[in-house]
Amino acid sequence: MPINKDLEPIELPMVLKFGQEPKTTFLNNLDALKVELVDHPTRQQAWNVAWHYVKATWADRPDIDPTEGVSQQELSKNLEDVFGGRTLPAPMECLGFTFRLSGLSFQEVTHIIRHRAGTFAAQCTGDRDLRDDDVVVPEPVQNSPDFLRRWEKIVNDSKELYSEMVDSKAVSMMDARLILPKCMTSFYYMRLSLKDLIGFIYQRMDTQIQPAADNLLASRMAVEVAKVIPEFTSVIDFNKPDMHYIKTFRVKEGDKFVSRGTNLYWPIPKNDKFEFHPNDTIYQCTREEINGTHGDGPQKRFTELWNADMTDWNDIKTRHDAWKAGK
Q1: Is the model's pLDDT at 181 over the cut of 80?
Q2: In a domain? residue 281
Q3: For 118, left (φ over 0), alpha (ψ -120 to 50), or beta?
Q4: C-alpha distances out from residue 25 to 10, 33, 214, 234, Å
Q5: Domain around 150
Q6: Are residues 137 and 187 in the same domain?
Q7: Least CB-packed of 27, 45, 188, 312 within 10 Å?
Q8: Is there a contact between 222 and 200 (Cβ–Cβ < 8 Å)?
């Protein structure tokens, strides 16, 4: 069909920024992370789904509500039995949770979408102008003045080139975006069944081989679920040793030892279950000790945020345990 200039142009869903100077806000990569639980079953719904699925096996009739006359404590214990593998696991596949995860660098994005059991919706990069998007910086880089200066220069130069290419209209946004660094932020919606959520949390909470940002995504997702379904505190043990790291750190292969995992750092106390040589790792220290050329202070920002999440988690668990005991 021919072009018709008499038609009223459509309203595009994105904001056009041709000719505008790029704006950049540099953020600490952990402070920028935000986890929001935007859709979930209520606690009562979780109780009911678990009870119906577990008790259906022995029901004489389908038209009688099996939860009638059952106390809240019984419903709660049954849900914990489901979580603990003491019943059929089917209810965990029926309970779904949708999170909005923001402040993500490209690295976190690759890790969440690698969890193939999830359903995702992404902030677009192909037809949305990225020149004003925020940028994240890890604490060790922030604590290294020369590295930070060069980091910011590379980001600013790449965003300037991106903007010039987009403004030229000789290079599309689709192609210009390839110049932008991995530290640009985005957000994702992530939908998981309870069963797959537990798997994701246990994989990414590993503080020995997973990045600090992944650890906080895992802890915050767990806390958000526990806020609405306190029984979830019976599922996750954040003090559990990171067994993948332990089992793969030193593996006997013939007459020598090799690594089958990610030997970045020395083991932290909960994982210090084996003998090792100082040079068995890429860095001869723990992750906490790597904090830039001018880093100081008793602990890293990660530890402050992680401890805050653990306080929230333990508070929910304590209140739930008291409720179970009738206190």
Answers
A1: yes
A2: yes
A3: beta
A4: 32, 14, 22, 40
A5: 26-41+95-240+297-324
A6: yes
A7: 45
A8: no
